[in-house]
User: Fold this.
Amino acid sequence: MTVIEFENVSKSYEKDKPVIKNLDLKVKRGEFITILGTSGNGKTTLLKMVNCLEKKTSGSLKILDKEIEAWDKTGLRRKIGYVVQSIGLFPHLNTEENISYVLTLQNKSSEEKRKKAEELLELLNLPHDYLKKYPRELSGGEQQRVGIARALASSPEIMLMDEPFGALDEINRRKLQEQVKKLQKELGLTIMLVTHDIEEAFTLGSRIIIMHNGKIEQIGTKEEYYQSENTKFVNEFLSEKLKFVYIKDNDISLNELKNLR
Ligand SMILES: Nc1ncnc2c1ncn2[C@@H]1O[C@H](COP(=O)(O)OP(=O)(O)OP(=O)(O)O)[C@@H](O)[C@H]1O
Assistant:
């Protein structure tokens, strides 16, 4: 089933200066789409259009088979978790309150909120006594886990993640990447994740998008990037790094790789 469908979508912040141009994209349920591209190419704008933070200028955008304009904004946002680099936890709320914030808005009982917070904390590998800690008492990686738990609290079908691991050190980043990949499979989530980290995009993505000049320059699985001809821009963008990722994950020799190209 198609969960997100862009058809000929354009977006301009200023008249006649589109930052997204005639974009077509179908995202199926359970896909993990990662989005790469140089700075200012409309990656964040793409995500923001999906959760109504920005309005498209033209074209059609359907979420769960319904035109975006036909959705009630609050109803739609409950189906979509949003995680950004600057986590934005509420400093005056403890972990439990931060995670269950959206459930408070839905007038859920304290018992229900506690249960959900405990369940999500466990899912993200944080100890139970963290429920009472405040954001200032948590490391960057722990705060980011709580941010992800909070985004999962309304049991969303879609997760939008904008450089979610950008502020973390290498070790924490790899750990959280693995966890998110596991969660995505377990919960059957559909994820769109923006990153500047090529290795991250190719490790996590079931399909990888490379944006250029407000358009999808190329989209495909990791194998497709290797087995078909890439555009000149894509080859330059990926350069040596992609070879490293491919060899690491698939254990093929450099000679075999050269034969593929
Ligand atoms: N609210 C806004 N008002 C005006 N212009 C904007 C606004 N938000 C983004 N832009 C412009 O739109 C273009 C695309 O921005 P966007 O944030 O989507 O790019 P990005 O690919 O996510 O960039 P980065 O990789 O640097 O985060 C940029 O030129 C940016 O300056």
